[in-house]
Design brief:
Helix content: 40-55%
Number of domains: 1
Order of helices and strands: HHHHHHH
CATH topology: Ferritin
Number of helices: 7
């Protein structure tokens, strides 16, 4: 069951309309690293999770990603302005003026429709968690790119909030990964001699080796250390 609260997770506003940037921000609405992808992916992955704590975590983060989607869509609405004006925007931004009536479209920044092909679900908790960690990291990078390309202080505040929430999700997924060591696809990690071989095919030079391979694990970041 889902319940919609009639307020945004965090308030959004803009200094002025900016249709070009509205289309850029659409990347995080319907793009492969965007909020809809994250929400659907984590929800879909949760359906067969048996660990109640991790299932709860996936659903909590999925629900929050839907809230992020609402924030991004609201910001796009404000950036698009309130009047249809296809003549006043560049060629790459006319779709919302001639097709969706300024309604934010579920596309990436180039206008390609959102697709379920963006969603990764394997049924193996370790694989899905690693996919989610990577997804949060990629979303953070896109938000960083978007932050650099807008001077609107209110849009930057929204991006700052969303970027830091992606970081929180990343940390939570890492904690969950540490909890499942020795299960699923991590259970028989590195038992074969082939798991200890490194093929040095870029000669000269050998900078890595795996004589004593260790299963992947994550340390929680120290909040007192700045990188």
């Amino acid at each position: 069951m889902f319940k919609h609260e009639k307020q945004l997770l965090n308030s959004v506003r803009v200094e002025r309309p900016n249709p070009t940037y509205a289309m850029m921000l659409t990347e995080q609405l319907g793009g492969p690293q965007g909020e809809m992808k994250a929400a659907i992916q984590y929800m879909a992955q949760s359906f067969r999770i048996k660990d109640p704590a991790i299932k709860d975590l996936f659903m909590d983060i999925a629900a929050e990603e839907l809230s992020h989607m609402e924030m991004v869509a609201t910001t796009i609405n404000l950036l698009n302005g309130h009047e249809l004006d296809a003549q006043g925007v560049a060629a790459g931004q006319i779709e919302s003026h001639v097709l969706t009536g300024l309604n934010p479209a579920l596309t990436n920044a180039s206008g390609y429709l959102w697709t379920a092909a963006y969603v990764n679900v394997t049924g193996d908790l370790a694989a899905d968690l690693l996919s989610n960690i990577a997804a949060e990291q990629r979303a953070k990078v896109v938000y960083e790119y978007l932050h650099r390309q807008i001077a609107d202080k209110y849009v930057r505040e929204t991006i700052d909030f969303l970027l830091n929430r992606e970081e929180a999700h990343n940390t939570l997924f890492r904690q969950a990964f540490n909890r499942i060591q020795g299960t699923g696809s991590t259970q028989d990690w590195g038992v074969d001699e082939n798991a200890r071989l490194y093929f040095d095919l870029s000669t000269p030079g050998k900078y890595f080796d795996i004589k004593n391979p260790q299963p992947p694990a994550f340390q929680n970041p120290d909040p007192g250390v700045k990188h």
